[in-house]
Amino acid sequence: MKIKKAHIDGFGKWHDQDFDFTANPQIIYGPNEAGKTTLMAFLVSILFGFADGRGKNRFAQYIPKTTSSYGGSLLVEINGYDYVIKRQRGRNGGKVSVTDSQGRQGDEQELKQLLGPMDRSLYQALFSFSQRDLTAVDELNRDEWQQHLQQLGAVGSAQWDQLINQYQKQADRLYKPRGRKWPLNQDLHQYADLTDKINRARGKFHRYQDLQADLKTNKEKLRQAQAELQKQQPLLQKLEHLQQLWPVYHECQSSHQTRPLADYLTDQQVATAQELQVRERELRRQQQVYQQRLARIDHQSPKATKHSPQSMPELQRLKEQAVELQAEEALQHRQQTQANQWQQELTAIKTRYHQPLPAPLTPQEKAELARLLNVQPLSRANASQSTGDPSRTAMIGIVGGFILFIIGLLANATFITAIGAIAAFATVMYLYYQRQGNHPAPVTTDSQAIMAFGQKHGLQDFPPDQWLLMQGDLQRNAELAAQLQTARQDQQRYDHHLAIFNHQLPPALQNLTLATVRAKLDDLLEQGQQARQDIQANTREKATIANNLAQLNQDYSKIHQQKMAIYQQAGVHDDNQFTQYLANRSAAQSQALASDAYGQQLTAEDRQALAAYANRDELITALSKTRHHLDQLNLTISQTHEEIQKDKVAIDSLVEDGTLSNLEQERANLAAKIWYEVQEWLRYQLAVQWVNKALAGASADRYPAIIRQAEQYFALLTDHRYSQIDLTADGIKVVRRDQEVFLVEELSQGTAEQLYIALRLGFVTVMSDQANFPVIIDDGFVNFDNVRRQRMLALLEKIAEKNQVIYFTADDRIKDLDVKILDLQALKRE
After folding, report:
1. Is-contact 497 298, C-beta < 8 A?
2. How many contiguous H segments (helices) and E segments (strands) does the chain have?
3. Is this model's pTM higher than 0.85 or not?
């Protein structure tokens, strides 16, 4: 497994942060409080689950304080395939999803299949260590060193330790040497009490000869069963040992089925092809991004409107007409108000005379009428002088009323307009009645001529003496009629223009008010302008995208040709075939190493014994039969013990009274119970001893390969001052270049740490073909000087050939070395 990228949604102090682990080894620097431990905890938590928050784990959850998001994702590579492992807030370690490169998603079960038997405790015991682990090395005694080596040498030994603890706890629940409350302790104490009572109450024995033969037979039967039990127990242990070794034996057998070594390409060509694959996928992704942008532009382009950009001038013309018609509408509204007033005045004039009114006389006709009526100008002048010149007063009233009327119209004040009209009308009526009262009677009249004049000009229905006086009203009546006719013509012309304008409008705008039409025309013009701008912007962006796509297509074609040239050398035609080629190549290269590693874990005796079984089921069947046989033997022994005790009780009861018989029977029952409890306690104790021996044996099988690899690493770290590591009954010893031997306890702290690191990394290297996980080191080289640190970095680069290495450090001296680092402090400043 290799971690390629990490994205943190929210975890401790990190939120919405990306990390790229392209370097190998990946060195991550940051001072205290920079977030190194948080990042390391995030990587482990995404793989194996968040802390449950109970007890001391409540501070190991790293729940962020500045964001509600909790969790993130890892992009990992497993067996040549990419997976995105995402974990978010949820129960039982968080909600997990796994997405492969084809977009298929899985859940927690899929992640367990990818991780295999690896869990958090096993991972931290094998692939992760810190300065605290190294500091504790100096305090380990020989047994603790042996336990550490067992954990390194036997994969899954943590589960074996749990099994040992489980068996020991179950044995302790039955018996402890210095305990009193445990069942077996109490039963033994009670048995001793019963024996004392029986010995005190026992007298002479009589008539027991008949039971002695039965007692002797049962004892012989017990001896034979116990002998058979001792014979079968080693066989059971051997079969259980073979069952544990069967997976290794099976893998060893499979590794011998060698495949031809697919080695047509050099490592550099393989690396080049993989780099070209990555670049090709990136170019394809960029092409898809640009194509999606083109599709989005087409989808978001301004929808076709009813009015194209070419119709915008027409809409502008309609808008100008709407403005003109609005102004004319206001004028027509004011004119209609005035026409209503004219109509009222006209109605008042017609009502005054109660007859249809004729046309007014011309000045010549007025002079002729005055002659016929023989009106004397002098008498009128005298009358005027006697009344004080009413014409001038009337003129002032008429002019004042007209001015008020005009002001009311301009100010759109109906009240002022009405006052002006009433003042003008009242002045005219006053003048009319004044003239009627002061008009002198004609001196002489020609009745026939007058009547003929009246018939000719339509005045016959009115008194002749009113004909001259009513000429003002007739003139006003004619003027009002003409003005009303003009107003109606203006209204008809406006309605005609409005109808033509309404017909020119789009159907959606017809039959609306001019204000609404004008507002909607403004909206249409604004939409058209915006659509034209959007179209221009989209056109420019599409041209830019087309140029970029053309360049991407050229680059993609070039890279694809380079990749296919390498594929042809390997005899493959596509990425899937190349992935299979790499898998075959890796499998072929690792088979020789696997065969040697598995072979070292099996002795010749183990191989010979395992070869006797055709398959694992046959081995399990033999193991089950042996266990069943042992169970039968234990049952026989238990039953025989009961029979012996019964015989003894029966013999004793022949010579004892009822009290002694009860005591003997009670002791016999208690002895049977004690026997069963002792068997149980011994079974747990034997199981503990067997697991310890099996664990030591399994560890010893892997020791040679681990030790050989560790010797190389230890020599590199110590500049070849130490050349050999030996496992002895006294513990671990190292041999210096001058052949002087040292126990681990005699080494300095720094050298002991180097030995511990060599052993840990030796295991990682040996088991990389079976358990390949990233090696995470948290500030593990604080006690190293620059020279040792440089050697350690060289060793990490060697380890990185097979495993990903991620090294966290707060030591700023790392910046002085010629290595590439990821500076968390600089990352936070960005």
Report:
1. no
2. 24, 14
3. no
